[in-house]
Amino acid sequence: MKKILTIYYSRDGENYWNGEIRTLAEGNTKIAAEYIQEAVGGDIFRVETEKDYPEKYLDCIEAAKKELREHARPQLRKWPEDLDSYDIIFIGYPNWWGTLPMVMYNLLEKSPLKGKTVIPFCTNEGSGMGSSERALGLLCRGCRILPGLSVKGCETQQRKEEIQNWAKESVQK
Ligand SMILES: Cc1cc2nc3c(=O)[nH]c(=O)nc-3n(C[C@H](O)[C@H](O)[C@H](O)COP(=O)(O)O)c2cc1C
């Protein structure tokens, strides 16, 4: 049996949601990640940054833009354990300025996943996966990277079945 891990980053709080700023009790990527784990089983790991991002959406996008420009590598509060034991890793993240949040760069640069199957999923407000798949190609060298799934954040709950079917089909590939 293949061992599966779903790793994701998601930020609760104020966000841009269906054309307006809203406070989300649970981030969109977290919801999608939980659907995936429910569909395919395995373990789930939430990436958290040591330093919180600003609560206000507009402040957060500025902080994230600065990190992107500076190639920042925010620290994780906790690191996933025993990555070596997994065969399939789903990697979930919101699209931040067209790519993965910088904390995911930090995680993936320091966690060689060579030889594993990597399956990305990305929530966003319309830019799809942006350049994140290209970035993953560089960050996950030597991995088999399957086609990712892009979900518009505000549609996450209504697309539950589609997300779960995609996840189940992906692990069969
Ligand atoms: C810092 C920041 C940057 C973002 N940049 C983009 C973007 O470039 N393109 C886009 O479509 N959505 C962008 N968004 C919207 C998020 O990708 C979207 O709301 C996502 O579903 C949030 O996931 P989460 O709730 O799991 O954090 C951005 C949101 C934030 C907070």
Written overview of the protein:
The structure is a single chain. The model has no long low-confidence stretch (mean pLDDT 96). This protein is globular. It has one domain: Flavodoxin domain (Rossmann fold). The chain is α/β, with parallel strands linked by helices. Helix 1 crosses helix 5. Strands 1, 4, 5, 6, 7 and 8 form a 6-stranded parallel beta sheet that branches. It has a two-stranded antiparallel ribbon with strand order 2-3. It is 32% helix and 24% strand. Strand 5, helix 3 and strand 6 form a beta-alpha-beta unit. The protein contains 5 helices and 8 strands. Flavin mononucleotide binds next to strand 2, helix 1, helix 2 and strand 6. Flavin mononucleotide (FMN) binds next to strand 2, helix 1, helix 2 and strand 6.
> Approximately what portion of the residues adopt beta-strand conformation?
15-25%
Query: What summary fits the major beta sheet?
Result: 6 strands, parallel
- Terminal CA distance reads 14 Å
Choose one word for the global shape.
Answer: globular
User: Would you tell me the structural class of the helices and strands?
Assistant: alpha/beta
Number of strands: 8
Task: Briefly note the CATH topology name.
Answer: Rossmann fold
**What would you give as the CATH superfamily?**
Flavodoxin domain
Number of helices: 5
Ligand set: flavin mononucleotide
What is the CATH architecture descriptor? 3-Layer(aba) Sandwich
Integer average pLDDT: 96
Query: What are the secondary-structure elements, in order, as H or E?
Result: EEEHEHEHEHEEH
From the alpha-carbon coordinates, what is the Rg to the nearest angstrom?
15 Å
Total tally of structural domains:
1
Uncertain stretches: none
CATH class: Alpha Beta
